[in-house]
Amino acid sequence: MKIAIVTDSTAYLTAEERSRYNIHMIPLSVNLEDGIYEEEVEITASEFYDKVRNSKVFPKTTQPPVGKFVELFEQLAKDYDEVISIHLSSGISGTFQGAVQAAAMVEDIKVTAFDSEIACAPQGMYVLEAAKMAEQGATAEDILAHLESIRPTLGAFFVVDDLAHLQRGGRLSAAAALIGGLLQVKPVLHFVDKVIVPFEKIRTRKKALRRVEELLADAIAKHGDLQATVIHSNCEEEATEWMKQLQAIHPNVSFKLSYFGPVIGTHLGEGALAVGWLKK
Fold it and tell me: pTM for the whole thing?
């Protein structure tokens, strides 16, 4: 039984990771002043931030057309028996639903869509777990059961510089954005019931990052050894330094560095930092 693992570009897996674990990727797109770009294919994260920094038009994001999913699933049917398609939270994008619709349209292969209920590196953690199991010959049922079993150990908390991006993009309520702006708050945000909500409102960026560190320590105490990712919006130097500090504090945690690409970066803006984790 050969199982193909599909995800979308917002998992922000490296090309090497996708190649190593034979992961298939469907890109989302970002609409800029000078055109529409498929992220991870036609535009890099750094190119995106350079373009929008002086732009007068707020970027927009677009989920993949259902036809793209159908085309990929039909192509995979030639070599695979089943597909597990893992996507960013259905609460912030219609991408997962697009995969569900496409699954019902293909006849030669069984496709199961999995809602990560999150995005970015934590979504990618699910994808890598699934891909490693598929490589070892696990069944689709076993892979999906495993993903559900580790869901309670997954966490992600992030700090943004400007809530206006989330509010304009419709990913955060206007009231929450207004309160943050008026008080110059740097709130810690997280996903609840598939959507982004404030976890705590904190007055300074430094204190917000320290709070995320406390939340990571709490997760380690609860779940034991974790794998963790520090994620940044075009502030790699700061993120790298933070990751080194966290690694020194938690030597048993496996840390890596990732980024918020164009689609998620549209909603978070430059300067966002996050930590996501999952039980090893």
Answer: 0.93
Here the tokens at position 239 are: 């993120």
- Res. 210: pLDDT tops 80: yes
Domain termination residue (choose one: 152, 179, 197) = 152
CA distance 264 to 256: 19
Instruction: Report the number of distinct structural domains present in the chain.
Output: 2
Per-position b or e across 222-242, b if 16+ CB within 10 A of its CB: ebeebbbbbbbbbbeeebeeb
CB atoms under 10 Å from CB of 66, counted, come to: 17
Together in a domain, 217 and 274:
yes
Distance (Å) of CA 31 to CA 68, 94, 103, 163, 263: 18, 16, 27, 20, 9
Residues 27, 8 contacting (CB under 8 angstroms): yes
pLDDT at res. 139:
98
Closest listed residue to residue 11, CA positions, set 84, 132, 116: 116
Look up tokens 């019902």; give the residue.
Answer: 104
* Cβ pair 159, 274 in contact under 8 A: yes
Long-range contacts of 200-206 (CB under 8 A, 24+ apart): 205/159, 205/161
Distance of CA 246 to the CA centre of its chain: 21
Count of Cβ atoms closer than 10 Å to residue 110 Cβ? 16
Please indicate, yes or no, if residue 173 is contained in any of the structural domains: yes
CB 120 within 8 A of CB 264: yes
Distance of alpha carbon 5 from alpha carbon 1, whole angstroms: 13
Q: Which residues are paired to 114 by β-bridges?
A: 86
- CB count within 10 Å of CB 181 equals 13
Write down the pLDDT at residue 171. 56
Amino acid at 216: L
